[in-house]
Design brief:
Length: about 160
């Protein structure tokens, strides 16, 4: 996967918008993730310097919060719900169909950087299970073929 081009003025603005407040580390990392789908490693020393936080705190936040990653992730992050309602309605089949189609396993990203396949706990749309989120979009009542059609929507 190619190296990320960092928009440094944008990173500086995000930090400034939170007044370089170390208490806002999570929100800052989330905003950076919203741009790149991960927190690029080059940004970490800047956060350490500007916020006065430790590098280990940044790693802890990234480990604890599933929405934040320090590894490059796809342009589209597919989170298949593995909550109970979706599980009993066949979430595993959806994950398997997507994994097979994309040639990756759960937690991995396609070589072209388009898709990351992941799992998530209940997203609160149980009646529409099985459900998958693609970035901020919710797709419900999935079966094998509609899950593959869902991919096609994002491939266009
Ligand atoms: S269990 Fe999947 S949305 Fe609730």
């Amino acid at each position: 996967m190619k190296k990320t081009d960092i928009d440094w003025p944008k990173i500086t603005k995000i930090v400034q918008d939170y007044n370089s407040d170390p208490e806002c580390l999570l929100m800052i990392m989330q905003d950076i993730s919203d741009i790149y789908n991960y927190v690029p490693p080059e940004v970490i020393p800047v956060l350490v310097e500007k916020l006065g936080v430790s590098e280990s705190l940044i790693y802890s936040v990234a480990t604890f919060y599933k929405t934040i990653s320090l590894e490059p992730r796809g342009k589209y992050i597919i989170n298949v719900c593995t909550g109970t309602a979706c599980h009993v309605r066949g979430a595993e089949k959806i994950t398997n169909a997507l994994a097979e189609e994309l040639g990756i396993e759960e937690g991995q990203t396609t070589a072209d950087g388009m898709f990351t396949l992941d799992a998530v706990r209940c997203v609160g749309a149980c009646a529409s299970g099985p459900v998958a989120m693609v970035n901020h979009d919710t797709h419900g009542a999935l079966n094998r073929s509609s899950a593959l059609e869902m991919l096609d929507q994002y491939r266009k």
